[in-house]
């Protein structure tokens, strides 16, 4: 007779377990920096694949007469810049919110949904570029939000 053991944890790769353990062990701000770097790299790879697929990554700001090329590392720098806002939010919620992980997840998912509109309002910008810009927000959020939410779920013990 064989015994079967059921687990409640979904199977994960070793690298995912190591990343999760690393994030949980860090202060919120440091976990945010790790997530920001991972999100920036992932988003830049996504943009590179889009460029390779022939998407003309040229966008125009409101009021501009023509679209300008999005520079290499432009996606990464954008992610790093806006993740600072998320890190500040996470640090404040960790300190003051009753349920910081839930509040962070709901707030940042809502902010991500709102961030999908501006790419489609960019004048003189190809639809394919607008789609890649919007999807890059989702790609960054898919890396950063779960990492910080997991960190906020696990409160670190305070030193006595």
In short:
This protein has 160 residues and is mainly α. 68% of the residues lie in helices and 2% in strands. A two-stranded antiparallel sheet has the order 1-2.
Task: Provide structural commentary.
It contains six helices and two strands. With 160 residues, it is an all-alpha fold. Strand 1 and strand 2 form a beta hairpin. Helix 4 packs antiparallel against helix 6. The relative contact order is 0.18.
What characteristic shape results from the CA principal axes? globular
DSSP, total strands: 2
**How far from one another are the termini?**
50 Å
Mean pLDDT: 87
Number of helices: 6
Helix and strand element order? HHEEHHHH
Helix/strand structural class: mainly alpha
User: Main β-sheet, in a few words?
Assistant: 2 strands, antiparallel
Strand order of the largest sheet: 1-2
**How much β-strand is present in the residues?**
under 5%
Radius of gyration: 19 Å
Helix content: 55-70%
